[in-house]
Write a structure and sequence with these properties.
7-stranded antiparallel sheet; alpha+beta; 4 domains; FAD-bd_PCMH_sub2 (chains A, B); globular; Uridine Diphospho-n-acetylenolpyruvylglucosamine Reductase, domain 3; Uridine Diphospho-n-acetylenolpyruvylglucosamine Reductase, domain 2; homodimer; Alpha-Beta Plaits; FAD (chains A, B)
């Protein structure tokens, strides 16, 4: 690996503040990768701009010296999108955390890309508003990274993906030009919506430096429920009931469609996941007996009596085998821990290989049956921990390393298994990544989910915006 | 104007059904334009495909013979996007109206692009679901056209634009290739989201032939209210209250953010608009006295007592000067007529010149003051009828032809006035088209709202997807 060009480093020294660039070994290790640990970090240097103008001048310089760039946010990604493994210059947004005043009337806020998700939540909560992009890594993840990866999370069923909550973007292009697209506008039909190119582009088309975020009211009262169901069909049958907001509950006295609540989360996990959480977090199962499948459901603005009547009717109709409704907020938090603790507990108790697939909800049963069959035939004895945002069709498939394989053997076998899994995803009209993105880790598999004509179009857009191929090279696809 | 090439017509005759192409004068006149009347229709022929394969083979033929194409849906557009004024071949989706079964579990439906909006509503309502894209022209507008124009409407404040309700698209490209993007997936983060290129592209990048639509529950109980307020500041102050769902109403006994209702529409209009509706539709003002400004508000799932307490508090706090809450559905429909009848009544009682601009909500006051000042200075005596979806920052500015100007004089003056209006829009960080789109009518003004770098990028994408420039040529921008 060659270092950064001398002339480039000299220009940085001449034109930027003394603390602009870091070659510190600790910084190189920290800022050279995200939460994935597959690739070793090896950046050429880390730049810490404070302003859009600095980012602009930096990219102009990178373009002149053909220096490849890896944009870097909170580095909580799970696809290697922020990994700098080949001597690239990392551009960290860490110092660009300014948040403008909340526009109460318009329900918007303008922030720099390095603003941390949770800080945005706190900034807006005082006004009774929120940016409803929410997930476990909110304490580290940054707005720019959320947008660049079109982040998902546990509230997508209620609020949609990050894409829906971005009104305007300021983006620095590969040549240093600053593009302002959108603005504080809900409606703007004036040709191609350029925001959409950058949202989910994983830093390959430009560096997002500022965003105008769309806000919504803080949610109303939330109720959290945990149910045990016999099988995946039961998970889906219960989902159908929940989606109608309990409107079909006998005795609820409500018209169809006029249900007593709105579903804000519908998550499922298996006993294998819960078992790992119990071991790692020393928590207990709040239900009286283990079950193969669990559903965690959160609902907003429930009429309490109607909700309880609905739950009772689920038991009567044998749609659930057990269940509990949190009676206060600490109980609700305990139930959430069972679900949100899974990822961490899997990593703490073993070596998981992660996949994050999406299926049309109507294909979930068939897909999961096929998955069981596939592993029984090809990878017998492997432990599969299945959980996810099933209300969005999003399954997290975690394969745990068997004791009799080394780490290297396991990674080689899972690469093989991924081809099998993704062939099954394709057969069921799914996506190989629901929310984590492609980055480096899923690049080899992109053809399972995007047709050649799509890939050609993606490459054409990439060439138009980044003709030198300097922005996050090798991520999503090779040029 | 030269006709279509003989060899092209011969190939159509050889390879397509006998009723595929129409040269009938009535069809040419009907299918050669949309609701705009500025350009005279002059298409070369009208094609009526029944299948995606026919569209694909047709576009391959058009590409081979360099025949320009105008895609045509329900032709209810207001920007001239579906006008064929230069001998183009119109491709009507009228025969592609098939609707697949509603997927209850996934909350989706797959339809052909020619399915009429209202037919989709009826198709889904039986299952308690709806595609919440809704506007006055729903009886004619088609799904493909709605998507190609990213249609808006009166429920955007609640549900967002069409863009949010499209999961998958089938698009025929200029060379005849059929692209399938998305699918019945809520989440799919696998590189560039190509759906977004086609949504709002006004037929310039491909012809949408099928779509998988995202559905939602039918709304719960709706209440409709009409208020009189003194001025625009009052319209906005009331909006702030409504947006918080009445949560700040003294005595409602609710926490901030836990309001008793969800706003599904927040519309305003002026006395001048109401006066035209009263003259044309022979309706009366349900309030006791005229007011300069009116607000029509629709709310969902209101707690009736809390809603009435909120309304009472608006009077007490002098946030409104008068108001009424519809007591039953026919009264609600009467209130809606006052707002939805405006467009038709303006056209029936005079010659309106329409603009459809969007402003950040926080800029609305300043913009409207500037507009008043502009017309007082430059166009004294002109009647401006102002109404719109103010909750989305969307103003419909209708300038009525003064009696002392001919139609031609008026159109020339309004073209001049548009430059003044759009300069004001630009100064207030707005958009020259909130929902109608650019088409032919606003093309000359696009530079007021999109920067040169944006226009260059739009042109680059257009050249990539349609190198011959055959798809809806001259719409949005010249190649």
């Amino acid at each position: 690996m060659a270092g950064l060009p001398e002339a480039f480093l000299a220009a940085i020294q001449a034109d930027f503040p003394p603390d602009f660039l870091s070659l510190d070994a600790g910084d190189l290790a920290t800022f050279g990768r995200d939460w994935t640990k597959v690739h070793a970090p090896s950046p050429g240097a880390i730049a810490f701009p404070r302003t859009t103008d600095e980012v602009s001048r930096l990219l102009r310089l990178c373009s002149a010296h053909a220096v490849p760039v890896v944009p870097s946010g909170g580095r909580t990604g799970l696809a290697g999108g922020a990994v700098a493994a080949r001597g690239e210059l990392v551009v960290s947004l860490d110092r660009m955390r300014h948040m403008g005043p909340v526009d109460m009337l318009g329900g918007t806020v303008r922030v720099q890309a390095g603003a941390v998700t949770e800080a945005v939540h706190q900034h807006c909560a005082a006004q009774g508003l929120t940016w409803p992009v929410d997930f476990a890594s909110k304490g580290s993840s940054q707005v720019g990274g959320n947008i660049a990866t079109n982040a998902g999370g546990v509230k997508v069923i209620r609020y949609g993906l990050t894409r829906q909550w971005v009104l305007g973007l300021q983006v620095v292009l590969a040549n240093g030009d600053v593009l302002e697209v959108g603005g504080a506008l809900e409606k703007n039909n004036t040709g191609l919506d350029l925001r959409q190119l950058f949202i989910g582009s994983e830093g390959t088309l430009g560096i997002i430096t500022e965003a105008t975020l769309k806000l919504t009211r803080l949610p109303g009262h939330l109720d959290v429920l945990l149910f045990a169901v016999a099988d995946l069909a039961g998970v889906l049958a219960l989902f159908r009931e929940a989606r109608m907001g309990g409107a079909l509950a006998p005795g609820a006295g409500l018209e169809p469609g006029h249900g007593p609540f709105t579903v804000t989360a519908y998550e499922f996990f298996t006993e294998r996941c819960l078992d790992r959480v119990k071991r790692h977090r020393k928590v207990r199962n709040p239900l009286s007996a283990p079950s193969d499948y669990y559903v965690l459901m959160e609902v907003e603005n429930a009429h309490r009596d109607a909700l309880e009547a609905w739950v009772a009717s689920l038991f009567e109709r044998e749609l659930v085998t057990d269940g509990t409704l949190a009676q206060h907020s600490s109980q609700a938090a305990e139930l959430w821990t069972l679900r949100e603790g899974i990822s961490e507990s899997l990593s703490a108790t073993g070596l998981p290989h992660k996949n994050d697939v999406a299926l049309p909800i109507s294909e979930l049963s068939g897909f999961c049956a096929g998955l069981d069959d596939l592993f029984a035939r090809r990878y017998p004895g492997w432990e599969i921990c299945l959980f996810g945002h099933i209300g969005d069709g999003n399954l997290h498939i975690n394969v745990m390393k068997p004791d009799d394989l080394t780490r290297e053997q396991f990674l080689a076998r899972t690469h093989e298994a991924d081809h099998d899994i993704f062939a099954l995803v394709k057969a069921h009209h799914g996506s190989i990544s629901a929310e984590h993105g492609i980055g480096l880790l899923k690049k080899d598999f992109l053809g399972y989910t995007r047709a050649p004509a799509e890939l050609a179009l993606m490459r054409a857009v990439k060439r138009t915006l980044d003709p030198q191929g300097l922005l996050n090279p090798g991520k999503i696809l090779d040029a």
